Each structure stands twice: as structure tokens, then as C-alpha cells.
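Sequence dictates fold. Below is an illustrative record:

_____
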Amino acid sequence: MNVEQTTHFELKRENKQGVHLPRPRRGQRFRLVSPLVWGVVLLNVLLTAHQNLAEAQAPEIEMRELSSTQIKKGVSAIGFGGDGATWGNYARIWREANSVPLDYGESQFDTGNRFHFEAIGVTSPATWHHLTFYGITMVQHGNGIRLNLETPGLGPEPVPVTGYGSDLGFFSKIAMPLRKGFSIGVLISHETSHFDAVTDAPPQQGVRYDTVWRPSGGLGLIWQPSRRLFFGAREMVNNDMEFRTDPSGVFHGEVRSSEFRLGSALSPWKGAWLDMGGTSLIRSDALAGTKSHFYHPNLGFEQEFLQKKLTVRGGLDETSPTAGATVKVKRFKLDSAYIKNMARSRIGNLFGSSSNSVLLTLTYNDAAEHGE
């Protein structure tokens, strides 16, 4: 993939006058007009959202958009429109204290490419002031992946290749409620990926992508002034040192991304929730020599039935339509989500022009639920 292609799809270049969402000053008191202020900010995000595709840059990094990126939000949040600022915020982890989640996800593309991942985690019992710890480990695989790659060692044009990719990640979170309806959460992540490919046409030549971990993590904050209204913000930073090996040699450079999410959720009637948010993503790839900055919306709605034993939901995660459901039976909860063209706004057509994805999380909770 050449720099010109990536630059063509670039939505906004990073500069000193870049757009930043406002944050409340330290010590500032929230008043009743705060929901209106947040609403104006979110509306601005939605109005500046673009439908152009951000061209994928590195296959081993883009694979993560089909696995670890989704795990960090949670399956129920994905079916609800993927708003990591509200339902997928790290600051909500303490509400799932003393539980064990099992995750599975699969993405299939129209090209025949298929990725799948499995994950297992554990959430500690609530400790001091409901302080709760969470950890999850994930493994992702994709075999026989066909795509077009461009590297200096394979020539000036994209070349059809077939390859194998894997991703291994461990993510830990800590969260607790604070005073006056606030909750805070912190994420620390460790993730490494690689992708091996061989050209389809003779003479067959190989190319390999590897990442070496650099400190990465995130911070989440939620404010819930009432049982039927809450706001959230989440920021996440990912850093990797990428190595590319092809017939021209070995090259390396940093891959960085900074993601900021802002959202709000409102319950208009019993058992129903409306969600609205926005995502700002800044990415840079030293090997490709590219920088990009885009905005996209997150919208969702859900309704509970059968005394909270069944919940159905749907939404829009950036440019991807989503739908999902949750079924509760005693201490077990099964979350499911379907996503059309998952992460299309981020990976473009790298693995195929369209895809269907299914995500599942089975959770065993050994403690009474915390009230909303």
C-alpha cells in the first residue's frame, strides 16, 4: 500500500491547530445546563463526521480492529452502536465485579478471508470503595488471508499476496465509583501482532510484519447525575514499533493512534436507553509516512423485556450498522452482537469490500448486581 493511496483517503492532517474536544476545568461545578453543553459538543462531532474511508496501513495492526478494539468496548456496547464513552467505558467495570467473561468473535469477508478470536477474563470482587480489577487475555488468528500489499521489496505497485496473521493481547483495567455520580477507570494494554505473506505470482517472495510493544493504555470517566441520564468520556493511546521485512531489507518505525470518545445516554422510559456519541481518531504510521485524523458518530437504542431477562438493541458504530441482544438466566448472561462491515471506516477494503461479523460474550457473575 503506497503513501499516495493512504494520503488520498486522509480526512484531516494533524497540525498545531487540530480540533480538540473541550474538557471541564479542574474544580468546575456541573450545573443543570451541562447536558445542553455536552449535547452541543456531540452535535458538532456528528456534523463534522465524514463518510470517506481511512485507508489501511499495516495488516498486522488493522487486524486488531476486528478483535482487541472490540473487546475494549464490550459486546453489549457494540450492539448498541459501539459507544466506548458510555456503555463501553472502563469506568463501568466495577458494576461487573466478581465475574468471569468468555469472548468469541468471527469476521468473514466477501473475499473469503476469515478472522476469529477467543478471550477469557476475570473481574475481581469489589474491594475498598468498590474498587475493582479486571484482566483479559486474547488470541486472534487469520489463515489463508488474501490481499494486495505494496512494499519497496516487491515493486512500485500493489502485489497480490496470501498470508497468515496472529495477534496476542492482554488488557487490564481498574475502576471505582467516586462521589456525586462520578466513576473513573484506567486501562493498561500489552499487545503484539505479526503477519507473514508470500506473493501469489512467481517468483514467490515473502514479506513479514511484526510489532514490538510500547506503553499503551487509556482513561475513562463517567458522570451519572440521575438514574436515567449519564455522560462519559474515554481516551485511549496505542503505541507500537513496527518491523517490516521484505527482499529490500528490514525497516522499522512507530505506529501510533490516539482515540477520544465522548458520549451521553438517556432513558426516555423504563427499560429503554438512547445513546449518542462521537469518536475522534488520530493515527500515524512512520513506515508508510502518513498521518490522518477523522471523526465518526456512535448512535444506539435498546429496550429491556421480561423483567430485564432479555434486552434487544441496535445502532451505528461509526459507519457500521450493528444489532445485538442480551439474555440473562440466573447468574449467566449471554451478550451477542452482529456488525455489518465492522471497522470499515478504519481498515477500508484491505481484507475485502464487505464483511459480516458476530461477537459473543458469556459472563458468569457470582455477585449481586450493582444498581444502575
User: Anything to note?
Assistant: The chain is about 10% helix and 55% strand. Confidence is low (pLDDT under 50) at residues 1-56. The chain has one domain: 3-11+42-365. The longest helix spans residues 34-47.
